[in-house]
UniProtKB/TrEMBL annotation:
Compositionally biased intervals (Polar residues): 607-616, 645-659, 759-778
Domain HMG box: start-end pairs: 80-148
Compositionally biased intervals (Acidic residues): 39-52, 63-75
Stated name of the protein: HMG box transcription factor BBX
Region (Disordered): 1-25, 37-80, 381-431, 443-541, 574-659, 710-792, 814-844
Compositional bias (Basic residues): 395-405, 724-735
Molecular-function GO term, any one: RNA polymerase II transcription regulatory region sequence-specific DNA binding
Compartments in which it is found: Nucleus
Record function comment: Transcription factor that is necessary for cell cycle progression from G1 to S phase.
GO cellular component, one term: nucleus
Bias type Basic and acidic residues, positions: 1-18, 444-454, 482-498
Record's keyword terms, sorted: DNA-binding, Isopeptide bond, Nucleus, Phosphoprotein, Transcription, Transcription regulation, Ubl conjugation
Species of provenance: Columba livia
Amino acid sequence: MKGSSRNKDHSTEGEGTGKRPKRKCLQWHPLLAKKLLDFSEEEEEEEEEEDIDKVPLLGADGLEQDADETEDDESSEQRARRPMNAFLLFCKRHRSLVRKEHPRLDNRGATKILADWWAVLDPKEKQKYTDMAKEYKDAFMKANPGYKWCPTTNKPVKTQSSTVTNRKKLWAFASDSAKDLPSPRRVTKSEEMPQLNFAMADPTQMGGLSMLLLAGEHALTAQEVSSSTCQSDATNSMETCQKSSLFQFAEISSSTSHSGSSDLTKQCGTSALFQLAEMCLASEGVKVKEPGKTKVEAPQDVGEAAAEEMEVEELEKTIIKDSCKGQVEQSEIEKMQNWDETKAEESEPTKCRDFTSLAMGNSPFERNDSTKDHMCCSPELSMGDMNILGLKPEKIKKKKKKNKLDRHTNEKSTPKKPCKKRQSSESDIESVMYTIEAVAKGDWGAERLLETPRKKTRPVSNVKGSVLDTKSPKKKVKSKEKKTSKEKPAETTKESKPPDFLSIAASKEVPCEASDNIKVEPLTPTEEVVPQSLPEQVKTEDSDCVKKIETCGSRKSERSCKGALYKTLVSEGMLTSLRANVDRGKRSSGKGNSSDHEGCWNEENWAFSQSGTSGNKKLKRTKPKEEFGFGKNSSVPRKKRKVGSGSSEQPKSNKGSCQSKKKNFFYKIVTKCKHRKQKLNVPDTAIFSEDRISSESAWKNKISISALNTPEPAMMHEPLVGSQKRKARKTKITHLVRTADGRVSPAGGTLEEKPKELPQSTLQKTSSAETDCNSECSRNAETEESHSITSDMPAVSAFFSLAALAEVAAMENVHRSQRATPLPHDGQPNEMSQAPVLISCADQ
DNA sequence: TTGAATGAAAT
DNA sequence: ATTTCATTCAA
């Protein structure tokens, strides 16, 4: 009785009714549980293919009547609740088990796991549940002929079709009344009575709704019992935990990858910088692929998890059987009888025998529930589940999240694929788990960092933000985070994956922006290198900043810093590019600039081609550049970055400091840019202009705030270190700038090296832009440097500049890793100085 | 009250 | 296509 009311009526429940029903249910549970168990077993043995007919008949009548009759129970079930679908039945059956296995998991997490299981579930078993659901629905519909799933709010009372309207009203009304009144039953009953009359008032059938609810509860109780029994098996729980983690991990990875791609595309479209957007898109494609790989691994893990789950289920089944042994046979017989009876007609409460004490028997729903339970409990089902689980991959979840269609396809296809993978890779899975965990630690930071950058990036450049942001749809990210927080190992693994993806994406982003194809490859290596380098940096440089999170934090910090720098660069570059375009339009009436955009595009293409051909070489070259520029200074900024990264996990303090620094730095740049823009009158970068306008507030809000950093404390801390850091950054930036400058000034030389692709026009543009920037930016060294960067960026072309920036970021990372060891690139640095830009571009 | 899942129904 | 809502129950 109450069960039904409690189900829903959350609002009402909250206060009284809802809770009461639960309690009542609890009371009912013992008896019901037993019955359910019996039924479940019976059902298990039997396969209820034919049951449907019977059930509906019984069910049809009775919902309301039952409610009325059952008035005694507290809940009145005024309105009928729509029957549970197959998945809900499945969830109801297995939720308790899942929760037992994963105590930490909340229902949401359990639901996700259940969804995974469902995805993996054998078609046969799934079909059983589906059949059950169908039967249930049929019965329900019979009971409530006019019932509509979606009570159209419209349904106005008005009209002639009193029956339908009444029913609807009754449904709605009943629900309302139930909600409103703690003891709404009677009221509803009075109302319901007419309905019953319309629909069909079979007193015997009356109990349907309540029965259904009760049955559900019973099922739950039964589950609980089974689960409790199962819990005794520690090993099983352990296994399942791992599985769950794996599943989660897979899910996360998939979700991240998906989200990223979608966001990227969207943002790209929206972003003012089309070029960047395109870049992002290209990068996305790459990213997606990589995540896919990771996913593949995850699925294997999932498969193992599934297998474990299978075991658990088996255990449960066995337990249940044991408990129910005596009754099982009877129950089976009864079931058969019940089914027959139901088919024959509901009039006979065959169930009553089983549930007689409960008076559940009458309602077909009960049967359904029992069948559900049975399904769950049934060894066959469990076996099938086990098989399915083993076979199917968890990836499906991720896919599901992203795209339902994908999910379905995956689910369908998955069973086989995952099984194979899983089977092959238990050890692999473990190794993967370890790797994942290890990565995850870093990734966590990376994710957070990424997230912060995302936020920052968003305001700065839509494209970047889009890339990162896209993946972080609230739901997925939040859920993931929640899960991670809840579960320890599993969470870490899960989260780790997403972070990895994110980090990858971030790294990719940089290259992608700069240049899609080539960049991506270099980036991944950079990423790998970075983590290693980071710890070193941390040790050497910042004891303070690094604090606790060293490795993880360092990774995060680096990534975050990179991302922030890159973003900022991009943003600037965008601005500069816009300026350059404007200037071009003015200046370059004659040269190849004729199509600045084309030139840019050409550059991009060029970059791609080069990157594809000689990405590695270029990267190496770039590294030396960084060494020059950064040399010692790099360490400081790195620290800062690290700090930022470290803060990422603890966004408030750490991030705040790093971000604040960055903010300041960026702010300066921005201010300079503003001046430039004002001079140039570049309307193109609305975002950027906004940032300028907002100035500090805007930055904070958009960038830093988004990042969650606390700007003030960070600002406070920064001054001392910040100045140094800024210097370091400047130097780094100068490097970048220099490279760009070198590229520009030596453009001819650079062109010589790889002159083909770079359009002269772009070079000229860059040079002009640089000159402009230099003149404007000369105010502060920092500002100048930043400006120079920006100027350089525009001069070359947004794309090119972006690519250069991306490379720089990558370079920095690599360089960091390398810097500890004096690179043999001495010659290269020179080259860098001379024609670094080209190289960088090529790399990108 | 929300959310996490899936699915059936309705709009 | 999108919305509604069925179950569960911790935040």
